[in-house]
Amino acid sequence: MDQNYNKFRLFVGSCFALLVTALTFAMRAKIEEVFGPVEDGGIFGISKEAIGWAFSPAFWGFTIAMVLGGFVIDIVKTRTIVWAAFFLQLVGAILFILADSKETLFAANVFIGLGNGSVEAAFNPLIATIYPKNKSKMLNRFHVWFPGGIVIGSLLAYLFMDKMEIGWQIYAGLLFIPLAIYGILFLGQKIPETERVTSGVSYRGMMKAIGAPFTIIIAMTFMILLAINVVTLPQGWMYLAMIAVISVISIVEAAFIHKENVIFPVIFTLMLLTSATELVTNQWVNALLGDAGVSPMLMLAMISGIMAVGRFFAGSLIHRINPTGVLLLSSIFSAIGIYTLSLFNIPAVTIIGAIFFAIGITYFWPTMLGFASEYIPRTGALGLSLLGGAGFVSASMFMPLMGRVMEESGTQVALRSIGTLPIIMIIGFAILFAVYRNKKPVELQQEG
């Protein structure tokens, strides 16, 4: 493989790109109160369900860009997706600052979502390509900058808006700093093509390794329609029933139609649950913990700080107990954390619950991507993009639902509802751990 490129500069630039993504998450978590109901201190008087709708493009836009990027990255080249991410994030940041209604906030989040999705579509396979022997370790280190950026963004929100009472537009303008840095770092750099391309695995081979591409794409399209209210499910339990149906159909397609291993459809289904557990809870942290006697933004900073430290040192943990073991433990800790937060409204107990929750969600996203890259590497950039897209389309689907549950039944019921997801994951990852605990990562070999 040609290695005539600046590996360090590409990695650092990738981290700054992900930092922009993370800052948009922290900013939405804070600015939710600015756009919220006037009786809760908001300026624009938008209901929580409407805010969930306006924020949802950040997730389904992410999904569209990431999945589309996964399909075309090897055709249009990685460099094109890198620069598409930069310009989409730039436009989104400008529109975010100008937003003054749910419609303009929605438009801003469309561009932000598309830009953030392009970041994941380009940089996950880039990291896997430039670090072929340490994929899980370096993907975890790359994804340090998601919680790390949320720490930075939430602390800046606490300082700028809570303490100094500086306008939210100035706070949002901080996005332009990491944007400029990563644009400069990638300027003029040679960017290698994906590992699948350099290893000679065909596009058809990549599609076949996915196992159930048709079911997965149809399912993600339906979930996007749910997120933007084109179709609706009246009861919350129907969302889980739909995920169960997707799982069964995708496994049947893989096993009986394409005669392929069913592991990718299984991982895809679990990604729908892990990401909703992490992202939806974090995005609603201001509303969920607003009455707990602690600063929601400081709690978000603490959660994200734990995640950043955990991801940086993930390599030795993954090596010791296998990625599926890490994911099983993560599910257990996140379930304990969420149910603790839902049952007690005491500051000290809230902090303890948040710590358990933080430890639980730390390894979900990068370890899921690392598992796919190491154990089913023929899925290539498309596999990573479909998993990331699954994560965000799931979050976009559950965001308005979570807002509705909070308004109708309160935050405690909302937390217990989202707590159902890690319970299901405990079962799924326990089965995977039993199957994969003694298996070694798969070496990607050229098709012949």
- Highest-level CATH class: Mainly Alpha
SSE order, one letter for each helix or strand: HHHHHHHHHHHHHHHHHHHHHH
What is the fourth-level CATH superfamily?
MFS general substrate transporter like domains
Termini separation (Å)? 18 Å
The major beta sheet can be summarized as: none
Q: What is the domain tally?
A: 1
Using the coordinates shown, work out and report the CATH topology.
Growth Hormone, Chain: A
Structural class label = mainly alpha
Catalogue the unreliable spans. Answer: none
Number of strands: 0
Name the helicity range: over 70%
Tell me the radius of gyration.
20 Å
Beta fraction = under 5%
The global form is globular
CATH 2nd-level architecture: Up-down Bundle
The pLDDT mean sits at: 86
> Count of helical segments?
22
Kindly describe this structure:
α3 packs parallel to α5, α3 packs antiparallel against α20 and α6 packs antiparallel against α19. The longest helix has 30 residues. This protein is 79% helix and 0% strand. It is mainly α. The model has no long low-confidence stretch (mean pLDDT 86). The protein is built from 22 helices and no strands. It starts with 6 loop residues before the first helix and ends in a 12-residue tail after the last helix. It has a single domain, classed as MFS general substrate transporter like domains (Growth Hormone, Chain: A, Up-down Bundle), CATH 1.20.1250.20.
